[in-house]
Batch of 2 targets.
Target 1
Amino acid sequence: MPIALEEQKTGFGPSFFSLCTLHISLNNNHVSPRVLCIIALLVLPATARAERATTWSFLANQVGPEWRINGQARTTAGIGGLHIATQSEVSIFRELNAEHPIHGVEITYLAPEGTEALLLWKEPGTPQNEVIQMPLPLHQALVPTQQRISIERYPDLSSRPEILGLRLPAGADVQILQIRLVGWGIVDRLKTAVQSFWKFDRMSPYSVNFLWGPVFAANPYALLRLFEDLPPQGTYANALWYKLLLVLVVLAWASSKWRRSWKIPAYAIACTVAVLWILSDVRMGAEIFSYAISDSAGLQAEDPQDTQFRERGNFPAFIADAAPLVADRGRYVFLTQYPYPFLGLMRYHTYPALPVAPEAAAEGIDTWVVFARGDLGIDPEGRLTSEGAPITAPGKILLDFGPDSFVFRTGA
Amino acid sequence: MILFSFMIGFAPLWIIGVLAVRAMQGSSPVLTRSECAVYGAIVGPTLVMTILFLLAWAGMPINATGGATALSIAGIPLLWLVRKHLGSLQIKQSLERLKGMIAASRPTVRWNSETLLRAILGIWILAKLSAGSSLLLHDPAYNDDVFNNWNYRAKILQNEQRLTLEFPYNPGVPAGVAAYPPTVPLIRAWIAIAAGGWNDDVIGLIAPLSYLLALAIIFLAIRREAEGTWALLGLYIASSLPLSLLHGITPYADLFVALHIAAALLPIFHALRSTDVASRTAWLRVGALSAALLPMTKNEALLMHLPIIFVLAAGAIAHCAHKRSLSGHQALRAALWYATLTLAVLLPWLLYKYSNGLAFGNAKPIDTALAWQEGALRALFITWVLETNFLLLPGLLGALLLVRQRAAFGTPLLVLSLFVLGIIAELIGIFSFTGLSAEALRQTGSARGIIQIVPIMVILATLLLRDWWNAVRSS
């Protein structure tokens, strides 16, 4: 069966509007920077401007002979795509002769459970066994879902691989609907740069130590994960501003030699610095506002269990309810899946009552504070259990804060 | 209500600070009222807490009685000194003048471009600070150093009412935090005691107050040297630095150190700019007081900042003596002020440190094994220059230091220039050659080193910018 190979071209062409603008500007008998920009856009090859994509669809049994598979797996080409259930680690790949550069790969898939897949990429001219593997986590997806990866995250890679494919671990169960290989042009990149400048990071514990600030993502896929994968992949805005200012200083210096005056070049530099400074200030000020808005939105929920405070979820709401229950206990056992930062926060907010390790329970401690521990529960006899085994005497739940968080007291 | 609760504890410290600054000026006041208020708010809390620390070490409890005793020990002699220098007549005159000023300051707003600029700037700063304050109020103890160190130690001091180096049940608490000077936690404990109990929102106000004081000292220092527009520009530059704002809403101690550095260094600069001997010596005495209190802020202030400030103060005094703008006797007296006040604070603190085996590093001990640390320099460049922590300030200041060398190194601005370059050299040295490079690579401490000198950097950049601008206009 042949693989459906279609190439899409999207993006800007020389529009009627830009041609009109050109005509009007030329009639004024001078060549303005605006005209130069338009000419530059027109003379650029269309491929440099447009997004170009190659789509390999696996829908309706479309799996061609160029695909190869290594490893043990049950593969089924069906109407809904290529279904792969692996018994061992499996690689599925094919050779390609890409007609356009490939800057990003998008996979549309279904997966009843998440799996840690790898994207396989072989550079042209490299030894046969030298295949680069890039992490491509395929999260649980019960409806068709896209996972995208920016190849430009790896600056040493060319944009024209010889072989491309996927590696799946043993036990993976994935249905691939489509693989899309995308190359972007200048217009897409400019648009992405503007969007990424205004994309904000979240308030995090590291924000008091440093702020990433605006980062120009290389392409739309990199933009999607700009502050998800750290450090963010892209160009710091400041790096660009400094380069711009350096060029301006050189031009100003040259201009001052020619005009024999520093005044106008100096004003130009001062104005540029001022504009960039204010722009950066507005951008970072907006980020601070976004933190405040995000905090307020997360804390709006009526039920404290549904509140969402930064990366700590509903822990602040939990602690507000739990702290009064341990205030008179002196010491209490605190159990959580995430000792950092919750242990320190618990200790701070309940001081002078102190959280202790469960081993200290034998010293007469009767109160157990449990946060985000799904393996703990209460058995029918009213005892606290860990993976089904009782670990305390019978007692009572004092605070029920969702399925895996509660305050329990023995003998109550 | 939160502000009122905060002021119950803070106001007495502030008054002591104003009295101390006023007393140090002697019979020749050189600081304006605004400067007195700002310098007083910086040195007052540290001065009182240094006394409270000594009292607590001697066995007095850290509670309302202990605090009131410390306030009295500081306040009574200072009040006597101020009265002695000013005389009651002058105090009355000052009050009359104040009444006149209040009467004259009835709102007569005339809208011109500068007023509009001020209004826009004020609204923008307030808007950002309000957004930031809402973050602060959502969880004042959000950050690690708040709930594992500063506020936690303050809670322990308030609860146990004595100096303690023990951290009950301390997983996650860095071993070295007990070696920090107790001033910052003591101030917070005192505010809690005065407010009638611990309240995170009340204690959290320390951060915006420090931020506003930093903006104020920058504005006032530039205003003393240049026209109001330049002071406003400096204020804008300082308020636009995102990481400074983050520290203005996080109850850490780096802005606190920054304020003390500014209060110790700027008087040396102002002394060199003074035109008469009385002003010069008054500024140096104010500087001596602030410098003496600097080691009580954080450990790095003792090891990194104080030595450079001492060298600069000694250089400034020697320069004045050489130029005969201070007599030999006056120069010696100025040097003695520095030596006496610093020893008075430092000796007990060092004794306490040695007697308890406390380290001189911060959370991590000082690493004396020197080796080149791969990647640290690049990490510093990214944190300081490429990320937007300080917008374009590092680049702007670097460029100005290059193109305005004569102003930067041939005028009293030399004090500020050498300090900034000296600290940056120290930071580069520490992060590039010691195990503390991990702090640079993980970006956990390197930007905070700059936060501590941001007020000086902003003042220096603004004054050099003004110098450059005037040169361009007259070319």
Target 2
Amino acid sequence: MRGGKELKEEVQDKGFCTLCGLCVGRCPYIKSLEDKIAVVFPCGIEEGKCYAACPRTFTDWDTVEQQVLGDVDGRDPLIGRYTQVWMARGINPELTRGTQDGGTVTTLIRTAMAEGMIEGAVLTATSDGLAPQAILVTEAGEIGKTAGSKYIAATTLQALHQARRTGVEKVGIVGRPCQVMGVRKYQTVVPEECNQDNTLVIGLFCMWALSYGFRDYVRQEAGGQEVTGIAIPKGELQIKTADGTITKSVEEAKQFARSACNLCWDVTSELADISVGAAEFAEGWNTLIVRSERGWALLGKALKAGVLEIKEYPPAMLQELRMAALGKKRRVVAELNRIQNEGTSMVDLTSPRFKSVVEGEVN
Amino acid sequence: MQSVLTINEPGTQVLMMGNEAITRGALEAGVQFCSSYPGSPSAEILSFMAATAKTFGHYAEWSTNEIVAIEAATAASFAGLRALCIMKQNGANVAADFLMSLGLSGCRGGLVVVFADDPESHSSTNEFDSRNLARWAELPLLEPGNFQEAKDMTKWAFELSEQTQTPVIIRSVTRICHGRGNVVLGDFLPKKPANKLGQWDKLIALNPFHPYTHQKLAKIREIFETSPFNTYTGPENPELLILTSGTGGFYSQEAVSRLGVADRVGVLKLGTTCPLPAKLVKSYLEKCPRVLVVEEVDPFLEHNVMVLAAQKEMLVKFFGKASGHIKGPGGPGTGELNPDVVMDGLSAVLGVARPSRNDVVVDPEKDIAIPARDLTFCAGCPHRASFFATKNALEIDGRQGVVMGDIGCYTLGGAKAGHFLLSSLFCMGGGIGMASGMGKLEQFGFNQPVLAMAGDSTFFHACLPGLVNARWNNSKMLFLILDNEATAMTGFQPHPGTGQTAMGEKGAPFSIEGICQAMGADVYIADPYDVAATTEKIYELIQQPGVKVLILRRTCALVQSRRGPKPKVWVDQEKCLGDACGCGRFCSKVFGCPACIWDAAAGKARIDEVVCNGCGVCASLCPQGAIQLEGRD
Amino acid sequence: MALARDPLNIIICGVGGQGNILASELVGSAAVAAGFLTTIGETYGASQRGGSVMSHVRLSRQLQYGPLIPKGEADVIVGFEPLEVLRVFRIYGNSDTHVILNSRPNYPLGTLIGESKYPEIAQILNEIGRVAARVQVVEATELAKQAGSAVSTNVLMVGCLAGSGLVPIDVVHYEEVLKQRFEGAALELNQKVFEMGVQAFPQV
């Protein structure tokens, strides 16, 4: 029997929370501001959905994956089950304005809404490229405002509950891997609140998310200038202000990576319907991983509508992506082992999924 | 409309509240200038004075605080006018610096100061006995023991004050101030105009006058020896003498009668307790050297009479607080008197049975466990939302911010109603002063956010020096000013921020934000009903250095509810999650508004429409959007 | 009229905000008009803060009694809230005590937040009834609401007391006091609910 009390003790107090926003949006006892979260009042409920759905409580990856992508044959130990990998980019300038890289995410979510796959989208907005904000968008025209990468961790899934409460039945979600897992566990634990058939999950690639210390750092670097945007292409941190762009090493940003991210096994949102990340080798393009039937259908609609362009993904580049994932997975498994020795079991490390990575069986 | 305060029908018997009786006494004496700062149990007196000011042609003001009030009243006395100044026990401390000098300077026109004590602290944070202050200040002290005396003593106090050129203290207590009883009305005396002050008319409190103070007190003692306010009832030679003052007279009389010992016990009730009418008391001690002293709170009379007996080398057996015979549940010298305390004491001293009609037997095993009824904020009170938002912000912040409390309705926030949020509680203005100090402790490794919380009226009363100090010394703290546009705790009196005077005239409206800005603090304003925005603002401000001020502004729900129809709030029970995960009765269980009740039959939340004041905050907190609000701006 | 028991000790009790003070003042003023030496003791501090409040009203032909009734010596308890009546009855009641009680509960903070349980009304009535000389229950809040406003529940309860025959004060005195205290629509409402209270129980 685990509830809010245990969520606080086993996840929040230990610094494991990813700020996915799932619990805080559902439960009035839990509150969050910036990158802090707290169970403000004890709810007294012994068996809490917050604990059960949290991506940072014990997660049976095999079972969840089976439920979500059980009918997908291809399984890659490093980037998850998928059917196709493409280079992709949005080709309708109306839809890609203000986007990072290829504008694929914005194009896909707009397509999903235009085509009636979803009625609303759970997204992350920001006014200054820094402080992110969870929002529910129900007008296609509003989606553009959420375009562009946000590097600071956002409690995006809060807006998922807003969708539910305002009667938005078919909902699209764009989230980091931890948030994708949050949604999937939620679908398992409370299917009546979040039906898998009515949900479209677009997953992002993610190596880490930053804390609010990054915002203070950027503001300091901007020296009083208004910050208009942030970008981190190819090992470079770019701080955009009205006066021009200040360039720093990406290492400057990385020092603000949240320690909770060191426990994140998933780099490419392996449980999403479709995953999107940068394609660092080709400017203006994204990497697109199609996983589920629903993801495939969405891609088809975008192509048919002529708003997205795809091309074959260079096998060498795919291998590079896989090796990047492997590097992270190895570091993470070491961390997962460490916290397991300290008494927190977040996954079943004896499962082949994890063992194979550590024991060097993959390549 | 005619009232018991205004009817000019001497000899008529009416029911009067003690505070009305004191007011009426001052009116009958022709009082011209009245000043006070609201405090329970005396707040009504100045309100009555203000309400009757036009009828009688006197002046009444709510002063910024008690020391200003006594200074203003003394000025009127200086000009030869009769002046009344009213304060609760804690207010007497605020005024003490000036009061301590008044014995030296004396006065001109009759100057009467009412100290209203609150034994057992019914509506105070603490109890104490302000009679000690009167003795310390070397000012004569009168103690009314019933409602008639409350009126008559006040009236006479002006006469005594003028006759002896000495300010007179009247010490009342809650049971007189807020009790009611029969009073026979007297006549209204004529008023004298103000004197012109000449070059050598001075009112100066310097030590060379000290001997004169003592001479005046000696004269007053003589007057007290024959005062009709000192009464004796009982046999010529009693075997026990009850020496009492104030409400002790009521309870002593009842105890004697209830125990059936009227032929054995005499009651000497003193109305003029300091300076002690020594000859009078000595004459009774000579008749009966066994004395039970009955008074509240401290053994004030008891000690004075003990000293007297020692001076006169009399062998007297004392019963009372020192002997442990007069004691409430908290022990001697704590709490208020009541008939049971005195009956218990008297029966023990006399060795007679204590009569009782109580035949209710409670079986703790089988009978109902009565839940406590904690004091809480009223339905719709903006303070509930302010505390809720503060609690949220501090918990999210996670550094265990400390909140220094202050005096007002929001003091209740130190208890369950405010999630036990207050870390300190002292006196008016105590919170900001403590916070200014605590905000300087970083160099010693103290890294918790520091907050102070005070109300709007308290802000003007006592917070300005503390805020100046915080700014001057670069403290790091957040000052939350709970501005509900009234002195709500004591009955919605105006204060400098409201721009209204006691007499309903337009005064200069002071802007709290303007004052704080002038002090150089960063000032922000939030609406506590907007819990999310307020939480965010508090969180944001406790991350920042320096002195920050956040004014949480919302009219007191009770004031608002008198202005017009209340907004409607109700629960859509279809949507309500009730006890289930995702809510768990959040509105009633956590927010704790008395209007958010539980419909046990339905297993759903319900709004008690009789209690609800329509603030709608619960509607904004409901995770399901099940609580509906209609008609609020 | 003389008193069967002198002093006659009446307690009016309820929760802050229910209008306890006004009720005791109405009774007290009527008593003075009827020639009684009357003393009232009040609790003010909790008056609007949801706490337990209680007014002691003491009538005598002989003495100006003190503002507090000794424990166990209430002759009449008029209660605006069931739990408060039980609380007061245990301390001030006895087997001669008459109780007039409004049946509508007002939940304490501890009950709202789930720390304590509000007892069944039947349980409360049962425990009081086991000892008290008589318990009369009136749905005062509901009646007052029907008459126009729940705010006037207190005056309705004063009507119940006035009509109960327990206090030898002629109803005319109460009616006079109402006229002195109120005017316009408030007077009409209060006169109406007072009369409803007077008629609430068939005379003993």
